[in-house]
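During the reporting period, we have paired protein sequences with backbone structure tokens. One record among many follows, to show the layout:
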Amino acid sequence: MSPHDGAEAVQLIIKMAEEVNCPDPEPLFEPTEAERPYPLDALPPIIAEAVEEYRAYGQQPLPLIACSAMSSVSLVTQGLVDVARDRRLVGPISLHFCQVAVSGERKTSADREFSRPIRTWMLERCEALQLDVDRARATLAAWEAERDGLLGKIKSASGKKAAGAEANLVALKARLVELESREPDQLIIPSLFFEDTNAQRLAVDIAGGWPSASLWSDEGGLVVGSHGMSDDNLMGFIGLLNRLWDGQSFERRRLTMPSAFIQGRRLTVSLMMQPVVFARLIDAADGASRGMGWIARTLLAWPKSSIGSRPYSDAPNATPALDRLHRRLRELLDLPLPVNGPEMVLTPPVLDLAAPAFLVWQSLHDDVEAELSRAGEFGAIADSGAKIAENAARIAAEYHVMTQGPGGSIDASTMEGAAAVAIWHLNEARRIVGANGKPQGAADAELLLVWLLRQSESQIDPRDILNRGPNPLRNKARRDAALRVLIEKHWMTEVKVDAATRVVLNPKARGKG
């Protein structure tokens, strides 16, 4: 056998693996505690009935469908109102969702169904505004040409000694000041969805774009796995998401990117991701996503898979509940946003809690607070517990807008429903964060998998892991234990070539990472 035969044999194995139906990789870890039943009856009927109707056909886990629906509700309502918990605690109603589900859970189908009316509305509005956009661009181009010509005259006049030259220069500069004062405003068109982005780009797009938007992906790996969310950049991204969740004005200055003054903007986050991607998000940059408080602000869900219990169901002839929800979402999208100026700075009216609703909210706040000590029920997730009452108020405000519109006060029954959903998500955070206190072998396997997915080759000599792999795995026993987990879970295959061992990545692994 020639010196090249070993490499060729491995490549042949990879090619054969790509041509056969490889088993799907299995999650490296999952929550051990069973999830609690999702409180569907706590949703307003217009949302709950649509969720239940779609579930009969799609058969996804109920929490996954409900979170998809609520993400759309958040995006549609967040620009219309703020919410006041008391006279000082006033803020946005935007929600951030993170759903964990294995491949094959049909999460994309649910996501598309509930975001469809928003995407359709956005496309229709953009098409209707196209002539106005073209006129605005032409006006700006003419203004820029005039400005360029004036700057050229100023440059030419500078330094001239002829009689009247100084007066001419002063007049030209005055004309430039006047011209700058009438720079044409550019029409802002609805762009409500961002996905493959980074902190710098998102900040610029949010600052100058539609005032109510979302970071939205049914494949969270596109966000978490992007350059913008790498360890080096993660803290900047998380910091931006936190500031947008809080709704305060701020400025991002960068030397190599346009600066962005973000004022009067609202952002919904809806990320669906596989377990390995979620683990990467939790572990990246020494746990920055949790340490900086974004996980605490986020409503988590990791529902039990429904795969294997979904016999074929005929497509329904009619979907009246979904149609009602879609119509309501479009009605709210058609309402004029409460904005000021050509920059469309949001100045939403404030919903308050009626006195009975405030008592419900206060009871939720105090009951959770009592369980945040180290020995309490939510002691391990005190960060999430400290934010759950605010999230409950946000949910209640969205329920109110969906059913009553952007005015009035939130009543007690609406607040009770929102509190039930918020507590469900808090219990999810407790069991999901607990799942990441995983056995050493699973933790090492996840660390090794992340490293392997960053390599350009799909096969590797295990000795290379000892030489240049993650530092904790440059120990033979831990390396071998991690490889065993990856092989057992179908992320890798072990092959022998000329008595040497190679490990080959499952071709399906990169799609999951």
Q: What stands out?
A: The two ends are 36 Å apart (CA to CA). The first strand starts at residue 82 and ends at 84. Residues 87 and 352 are 9 Å apart (CA to CA).
